[in-house]
Amino acid sequence: GIITGTGMAISNVAAITILGHYFTTRLGLVNGFATTGSCVFTASLPYVINALLRHIGLFNTFRCLSVLGASLLLCALSFKTVPQDDEKTPLRPVERRVSFARRATSVLNMRIWKNRAFVVWCAGCACALTTYYVPHVFIVKHASLILPTYKNEVLVTCIGASSWAGRMFWGRIGDFPRVRRVRLHQMAFFVTGLCSTLVPIATHFAALATLTVVIGFFDGAYISLIGAIVYDMFGRRDAPQAIGSNYGVCAVPLIIGMPLAGFIYDAQLSYQGTYFFAGAPMILGACILFLM
């Protein structure tokens, strides 16, 4: 799990960062288009994995997923950094010997943490992401308990398909000059939190499907604008560190939030409390972004 998570983090940060090297306009739309691949797999993998489990078993299914992940090696070969005009390669190294401590501190860019807007944005994202993926993870099991006769895997497909549309739509909206991209993030957190609190009272499949479509659509606003917001704040120079730092900060509440949501289910044997709990951090995270 640690190795897989590390590889996914590196590939994700690189994929978002590299876009700013090639595009300076319509960065929101570009990010939305580049991240639509995950939506395709979100919508299709539940069916593919179920078929693989039936025909080749668990171990061979994991091997197939490993091959799919290894394809990122080929994709990474297409990444090529475009140097800025003011970047010049020195003819010879200025210092031949640098202490390990100095090298370590040079990796950590402290300039980004002096930007108040970035700190507030990271705090709001971290708060919202505490339970952000609760609807994605638990929706099928919740639906299976209250609607056992339906094919509830369709709900995951609804999230993936609507997220694809949302990334293209909100990415384009975020490129308009008068639109503040951070406010779209704020709206995404609030709507997702509100929909999470409504899941327990949705007792019909059509209602659950509608909520998952809305959640997926506004998930597109969050995913597609991360890179664009960071480039607005820092430009190409500090964007890689800022994107990685944001993901690093948000990883901590993600680690804590999901087990806590599972603990609530174990205590109540129902996902109602889990979804009511999930909405609060997302709405609070949206409120924190008012400080920007």
TrEMBL record:
Superkingdom to which the source organism belongs: Eukaryota
For this UniProt entry, which segments traverse the membrane? 29-49, 61-79, 118-140, 187-207, 213-234, 246-265, 271-291
Please state the protein's primary subcellular location: membrane
Q: Which InterPro entries match?
A: MFS (IPR011701), MFS_dom (IPR020846), MFS_trans_sf (IPR036259), Proton-linked_MCT (IPR050327)
Q: What's a single GO MF annotation on this record?
A: transmembrane transporter activity
| Name the record gives this protein | Major facilitator superfamily (MFS) profile domain-containing protein
Which intervals hold domain Major facilitator superfamily (MFS) profile?
A: 116-292
Show the PANTHER family listed in the entry.
MAJOR FACILITATOR SUPERFAMILY (MFS) PROFILE DOMAIN-CONTAINING PROTEIN, MONOCARBOXYLATE TRANSPORTER
Keyword field: Membrane, Transmembrane, Transmembrane helix
Question: Topologically, how does it sit relative to the membrane?
Answer: Multi-pass membrane protein
Has UniProt tagged this entry with the keyword Transmembrane helix?
yes
Compartments in which it is found: Membrane
Q: Which GO terms describe its cellular component?
A: membrane
